[in-house]
């Protein structure tokens, strides 16, 4: 279905751009120079796919299609000069980010399956594709890691990649499996944004500190 593949490619590029913008915005909050903007924007945009390809021992996608790398650099430089604009539209960016998260998770899982990865590995690599760039962004920018926050983010990526792998294993056609899985991941992340949903937090029993539990 050429139309479906075209729509998926558009969402893939949109996700890359939004991820790069989110990385560059962290650089703006840290008042970095333009090199810092490019570093954070690029790490966020291509970090997850790079990790996936390295684990799969496959050609890293942006070395095969340098346009991805160029896009991250260009977007990061643009944000350096216009950071006040996306910052004032940050809520809108979060919704585009939700779409990119779901698309990256499904695309990462599909690539892993195509290269012969075990289904459980494909699910985890789908999650890594969608979230590792954000983790890199937070580490480099000295921000609280997205992986350790209670907001529903990694869970949405897990739903998207896990749903796609499960539907594929039971023989659902690719386009339907991808469409349903992207919609599921986006819906969960979107609901979390709209209603402030978070994951439940572990609470130690009264009278015992975390240090005592570790001992």
From TrEMBL:
Keywords: Cell membrane, Membrane, Transmembrane, Transmembrane helix. Residues 10-83, 94-167 form the Glycine transporter domain. The chain crosses the membrane at residues 6-27, 34-55, 67-85, 92-109, 121-140, 152-170, 176-198. The keyword Nucleus does not apply. It is found in: Cell membrane. It is a multi-pass membrane protein. GO terms for cellular component: plasma membrane. The keyword Transcription regulation does not apply. Belongs to the UPF0126 family. This is Membrane protein. It comes from Salinarimonas ramus.
């Amino acid at each position: 279905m050429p139309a479906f593949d075209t729509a998926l490619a558009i969402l893939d590029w949109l996700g890359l751009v939004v991820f790069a913008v989110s990385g560059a915005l962290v650089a703006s909050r840290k008042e970095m120079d333009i090199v810092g903007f490019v570093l954070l924007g690029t790490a966020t945009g291509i970090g997850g796919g790079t990790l996936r390809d390295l684990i799969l021992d496959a050609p890293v996608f942006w070395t095969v299609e340098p346009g991805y790398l160029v896009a991250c650099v260009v977007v990061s430089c643009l944000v350096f000069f216009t950071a006040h604009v996306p910052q004032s539209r940050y809520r809108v960016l979060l919704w585009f980010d939700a779409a990119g998260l779901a698309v990256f998770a499904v695309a990462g899982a599909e690539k892993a399956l195509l290269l012969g990865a075990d289904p459980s590995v494909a699910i985890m690599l789908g999650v890594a594709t969608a979230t590792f760039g954000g983790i890199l962004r937070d580490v480099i920018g000295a921000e609280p890691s997205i992986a350790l926050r209670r907001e529903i983010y990694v869970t949405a990526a897990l739903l998207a990649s896990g749903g796609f792998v499960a539907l594929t294993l039971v023989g659902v056609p690719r386009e339907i499996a991808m469409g349903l899985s992207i919609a599921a991941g986006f819906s969960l992340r979107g609901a979390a944004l709209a209603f402030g949903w978070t994951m439940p937090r572990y609470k130690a029993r009264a009278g015992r500190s975390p240090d005592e539990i570790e001992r």
